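[09:14] KT: can someone run the structure on this one? pasting the chain below
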Amino acid sequence: MSVPCRTQTDARVAFQSCKSSDPKDQAEFYDNWVENYEKDVTLLSYRAPQLAVDFLSENFSGSPEEARVLDVACGSGLVTKLMAERGFRHFVGVDGSKGMLEQAAKTGLYQDLKLALLGPEPLPAPTDTFDVVIVTGGMGVGLIPVSVVREFCDAAKPGGFVCISKGDHTTSFEFRKELERELQLMEDEGLWSPVGVKETDKYMENPHLNAERVKDLQQEERYISGRVYLYKKSIH
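[09:31] RB: done, structure tokens below
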């Protein structure tokens, strides 16, 4: 049974409890977090889904009702619920956690849901198919590696969008540099062009802080920064 009154401390403890960078351990961690996941990310003011969907919507000029969306690292369906509010209707979800996919299925919004540990396993998506490929908070050490970004681009149709959000977690500065090198390299190769990068100083409350440290900080000091990268696939 879920605990009726979760606290922010509970949420931080849950977030910090996965120490492994092994993708299988991470998937098991999310399987075990399923019941409290949405409560916990709300307690930590996790804004990545909203930031990504807002930035995408500002730049999407097609018909949302007809667009096909690939929701990578879909989790319990937070991104797809927000996109459905904007009129998007056609969703395929991919995640490495079976438990999270079961939660996503309960939304009733996905036409298909696929289990895959990206990196060790290929992205289970056809090429040149999706109007939007969106990846919110799923990239990082032990999560989706930088190498998979090319698979996101492959899955997008020519002229389609790839939207990636990433927080500046304490362990991810090297990862961010590696990611941005790959994004730039793909631009140099003519695979896509940048639409923009949306930066925020309030991506989510820092999940790595302990309860004592939190008490010493002002509200605005408790957040980590992050950004949303938006690219448009080239039409050849």
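[09:33] KT: thanks! The CA atoms of residues 30 and 167 lie 18 Å apart.
[09:34] RB: yep, looked fine to me
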